[in-house]
Amino acid sequence: MRVRKGRIVLFSLLVIAILATVAATSLDVARGITLGLDLQGGFEVLYQAKPLEKGQQINEQVLSDASRAVSERIDVLGVTEPQITVEEPDRIRVQLAGVDDPDRAREVLGTPAVLTFRAPDGEEVLMRGTDLSPGGARQDYDENGRPVVSVRFKDANKFADLTREYLNQPVPIYLDDNELSAPVIRNIISDGRAQISGNFTAEEAQELAELLNAGALPVELSEIQSFAVDSSLGAVSLQQSLVAGLYGIAIIFIFMIGYYRLPGLVAVITLITYGYLVLLTFNLLNVTLTLPGIAAFILGVGMAVDANIIMYERIKDEMRLGKSVTSANKSGSRRSFLTIFDANVTTILAAAVLFYFGTAGVRGFAVALIVGIVVSFLTAVALSRLLMNLLVRSGLFRKPGWYAVKEDEIGEL
Amino acid sequence: MRSVNFKFDFVGKRKLFFILSASILLLGIASLLIQGLNLGVDFVSGSRVDVSIGQEFDLEEGRAILEKLGYENPSIRKAGNENELLVFRTDENLEVEKVNEIRDQFREKFGEQVAVNEQTVDPIVGRELAKNAMISVLIASVGIILYVTIRFEYRFAMTAVLALFHDALFVIGIFSIFQWEVDLVFVAAVLTIVGYSVNDTIVVFDRIRENIEIEQPKRWEDLKEAVNRSLQQTLVRSINTGLTVIFAAAALFAFGGESIRYFSLALLLGLFAGIYSSVFVASQVWITWKWKSMEREKLKAKAVTE
Questions:
Q1: Where is the Protein translocase subunit SecDF P1 domain (chain A) (predicted)?
Q2: Chain A nearest-CA residue for B203
Q3: Do B251 and A245 touch (CB under 8 A)?
Q4: Which tens digits make up the pLDDT trace of B274-304?
Q5: Which residues of B touch A245 (CB under 8 A)?
Q6: Fewer CB atoms inside 10 A, N or C side of chain A?
Q7: Do the beta carbons of residue B270 and residue B196 sit within 8 Å?
Q8: Is residue A314 over pLDDT 50?
Q9: Cβ B1–A362 below 8 Å, yes or no?
Q10: Cβ contacts of residue A178 below 8 Å, gap of 6+?
């Protein structure tokens, strides 16, 4: 077979392109990944929603309103990108990454949301959120088409008294200690219905309505689990895991090249691509990287190495049977494909089940695992085959020694 | 050919492997029944406070601080790569103020670099998670059995799942024997092991199936020879793959820091178990089972011809 320089050039270009992309963008990609609390420090708390009054149902709507109220509170803290998840049937998980002051966070989050209608002085509490009918606030438009919030009270008479007393005066509405709105009472309202007007946009009015509903809910949030990591500790964890990862990967690289020679080099390139693509996917899917996520990542490295090893061992087997490098490569990669496929499908199956049935922690792990397997399958099978084909067909590497096969191992055909 | 030069009668020694596996598993089960697992705060109520001192320190000084704060005979230990961590476990759910108190006292004694990692858990949540993980593994096993039955045969499927439980139980048993602390991250490690175990077993089975399809063994010697050869052929791959993953896990264990120490330890044990079980347990159970059913079929065939 003659030497085809084109293939080697193509191979080199491909490798250079991959390495250049990785080198140029991997730092940005890595920075864009959301780190879990265990890796960057922060505060996580799991609340259980309990009814304040007997007979109060805790349903999906109630929980979503309550989480809305919680999110409003977090805004007070100035935390960026808090994660608030409703976990059926009655829990709300709040994750505040990178919070330096978990105590304050806890304090602000821990007290139940109190919605109050106050006297004009802003001190005396006239009515509470619990006086609103459940779900009694909604976004509406007034006769001039301006967005307003209409509210309905449980006890129409009580509200009528209030409007009589404070006619033509403002009655500010507070959520905890923040004034939301200070509507002025214009007439006595006897049917328990009112409109809160202000210079709202439709969205703001909608938001206020949701807040009112949230505040109106007699939900008590009790802390059932908490987790706080000082940010310096989280940073240490992350740094240690990264250093450990680098050592581990370096050993794998040395081992692969040392044992498999040319194919080992291909494996190293596919592994670099694997690592890069997984990080990129984490970034794009907004996967939060936690310690278990790192575990899944490592398992993915294992799978990717495994797929490469299965293929190379098969190719070596074929060469030992006396086949030429080209045909050994061809039949070896073909025969190893189904094996790799079956092995990956079973693991994905397991990961998918974990995702479907798992709770928060297990789910993150499952997502990371699925991403890892899919990416490792693509890189270790598709990319590895492509690169191997280019190398083999270039005709430059015809000696079995390049593939770590000794001449005396080769049987007669 | 090297693969021919290297011969090891795996099948012939299978009883030995069964005894070895069974005794380790029984030991683990016995330990689980007698002393159970050393459950972290994820599963039993209470708080755990990790105080990072930042330097080597005297444990007694830490004890003195905690005792001064009113914790009688506190359960504390040293941890971390440089023994720079003090881990304090208590049965009571510590309030924020109390944790702050601890931090402040330690800062006073050891300096401002002292940082605290605090965890308080309602055990119900952790137990739920572990229960869900267990249910998930069971359902996943059913899925794996179905898939492998369709692609291979049910004997392969059942033994692959058997190996999966072998590996998980092995790690859980060892953790019980040595009373290493079990937390939520440990659950993730066991799940990782389950994933790896199946993957590894399938690769070995795939080769057995291929060789058996080519040779159609009828006698015990032929079947044994086919399985032995399959194992020899895949052994280099099993070892190499195992090694590479073990490199990664070992690096995590050595350099990964305190919070994932037991996690990487569990991974390491699980990887060993995974490699061991696919070669020495799953394949051996399979061949025993396969041969039994082959004999039964022969008897049937004989009965029909007579």
A1: 65-121
A2: A339
A3: yes
A4: 989 988 999 999 999 999 999 998 888 888 7
A5: 248, 251-252
A6: C
A7: yes
A8: yes
A9: no
A10: A76
